[in-house]
Specification:
Radius of gyration: 20 Å
Number of strands: 0
Strand content: under 5%
Oligomer: single chain
Shape: globular
Number of helices: 13
Distance between the termini: 29 Å
């Protein structure tokens, strides 16, 4: 989706296309190295761009992923190393788990490269009215499709499948008893997906409104701010309170699963998380 890169779940793993396979350092490196193409394609897919505009997008993707490699991967490596230690503890802290999960929210954090977002704003300024309207239609379709998906996919099943896939990727198969724990804790999540979808749509509308004024002064600064707000959108009021409760529930769920693990499972999980940390560090230095 143009200008709103990626949505995340539990971990960096979930957006790297690892469904149905098991972690290895090579698979992580290969998928990370493919992200430059993913970023570029994500930005191109919703609008028919000219060859010159596509070339500008490709240059942006290359620059932002180089920035990401050297500035963000060391942070992620640190987080996974800390998680590796936490899972071996007898009584892991919910606050610590939530803290590290919160740090991963918004991955891949490309909006933090504000000096490069300005380059993307320069591309946005070259869009024609026809291209802006095309983007608007695309974003409206995305919003409607997401609303339909929410109605047809229960939240509990979505969370269960996501967590099961993540542990499978890490080489761990949850036992029937652990699946029962998962089922019990999942029931405590509040379904605020429609509210989040509405907030996303409002962000899309702000973006389109801004693009209609792309020749106005301060456009680049405003464009950078709007993108940051879209990537880091936080709900307010009652929905915001439920969003915070879901984050705590997520951390408690992980704690309960960790506590239910035998020594072999804990060792496997800790070893895999540490390997991911080491692989990310290697990528950062390539």
């Amino acid at each position: 989706m143009m200008f709103k890169l990626f949505q995340t779940g539990l971990l960096i793993l979930s957006i790297m296309g690892f469904s149905g396979c098991t972690y290895s350092p090579k698979s992580l490196k290969d998928n990370y190295n493919d992200l430059q193409t993913e970023v570029s394609n994500e930005l191109k897919e919703s609008v028919d761009l000219s060859p010159r505009q596509e070339a500008q997008i490709d240059r942006y993707a290359k620059a932002v992923m180089l920035w990401h490699r050297h500035n963000k991967l060391p942070e992620y490596a640190y987080i996974f190393a800390k998680l590796s230690g936490i899972v071996k503890q007898d009584n892991p802290s919910v606050a610590a788990l939530q803290s590290y999960l919160d740090k991963m929210e918004g991955f891949p954090h490309l909006y933090q490269a504000t000096h490069l977002t300005a380059k993307l704003a320069n591309v946005a300024q070259t869009l024609s009215d026809k291209q802006v309207l095309q983007l608007e239609r695309y974003l409206n379709t995305v919003s409607k499709e997401e609303a339909l998906s929410i109605k047809t996919h229960p939240l509990q099943a979505e969370i269960r499948d996501g967590i099961s896939t993540t542990f499978k990727f890490l080489g761990l198969k949850l036992s029937p008893e652990q699946m029962a724990i998962l089922k019990q804790d999942i029931s405590k999540f509040h379904d605020i997906r429609m509210v989040e979808n509405t907030a996303d749509k409002e962000g899309y509308n702000r973006l389109i409104g801004l693009l209609m004024q792309r020749n106005q002064p301060q456009f680049i600064a405003r464009f950078t701010q709007v993108l940051k707000q879209m990537e880091m959108a936080r709900l307010t009021g009652d929905a915001g309170a439920l969003q915070q409760k879901n984050r705590r529930t997520h951390a408690r769920l992980l704690k309960h699963l960790i506590l239910s693990m035998n020594s072999e499972q804990k060792e496997q999980l800790s070893r895999q998380l540490l390997s991911i940390s080491q692989t990310l560090s290697e990528l950062a230095n390539e």
